[in-house]
Design a protein that fits this description.
This protein is about 70% helix and about 0% strand. It contains eight helices and two strands; from the N terminus they run H-H-H-H-H-E-E-H-H-H. The radius of gyration is 36 Å and the shape is elongated.
């Protein structure tokens, strides 16, 4: 015997069935969304992290000019420091002694900094000799007593003193030393400015080009001060 249901009961049953179907569909969609959304977010997040952590070539990359700048400026600075080291016992002027102390204080740390760059880049670091210059492969030491006959010559660094000039300065004292020191250091600084400006124009490593800019500013000021000491404009 068939069971007769009231219209109200049939309506309630239909609504329950529809609700169950809708819930099931929602669960299926949620599950599908759960399978795909996290990987998508993870991939995006990973890309964003990589982009933000990746070094900028303009700030941390270096080129051949940066290597050349450091390899040449290190011995250039060493010679300036060697010249400055003569002043305490040979100079008469306290101004010259003070200038020499400033040069030594400024350039010694810069030598250490550039040495660190070359080591990090896997490039050779110039070895210092007794005169404060350096034995660099292929360096042209014309007039300085060094022989590079077995290697192709590289251009001499601008402003560098020869061994004879350094030896002559060591033998001077008093006013004679002061004037010779100032003239030689002006030429030495002018050579450094040439090298630093080349680095500013062609270098790629941010700290190296920043150091070059600092050298231009500080040594230009020192040149002006030395000219004033010599009574020049």
């Amino acid at each position: 015997m068939a069971i007769r249901r009231s219209p109200l009961r049939r309506s309630l049953l239909r609504r329950s069935a529809a609700l169950a179907a809708a819930t099931t569909a929602a669960l299926v969609l949620t599950a599908c969304g759960g399978d795909s959304t996290p990987p998508s977010r993870s991939a995006h997040s990973g890309h964003g992290t990589t982009a933000s952590a990746a070094p900028s070539a303009g700030r941390t990359g270096h080129n051949a000019q940066d290597v050349t700048f450091a390899q040449q400026m290190i011995p250039h600075h060493r010679q300036a420091v060697a010249m400055a080291g003569l002043a305490p016992t040979r100079a008469r002027s306290q101004q010259v002694k003070d200038l020499a102390a400033r040069i030594e204080k400024a350039q010694d740390p810069e030598i250490a900094t550039m040495t660190g760059w070359l080591k990090a880049w896997g490039a050779s670091v110039p070895e210092a000799d007794a005169s404060g210059t350096a034995d660099m492969p292929g360096m042209d030491h014309s007039g300085s007593g060094h022989s590079a006959a077995s290697m192709p010559a590289m251009p001499a660094m601008p402003g560098m003193m020869s061994d004879a000039e350094m030896s002559g300065l060591e033998k001077m004292s008093g006013d004679v030393f002061d004037r010779a020191f100032l003239r030689m250091m002006i030429g030495h600084h002018e050579g450094a400015l040439d090298m630093a400006r080349t680095e500013q124009a062609k270098g790629a490593y941010g700290p190296a080009t920043a150091l070059a800019k600092s050298i231009v500013v500080s040594q230009s000021a020192e040149i002006a001060g030395m000219r004033k000491m010599l009574g020049e404009r």
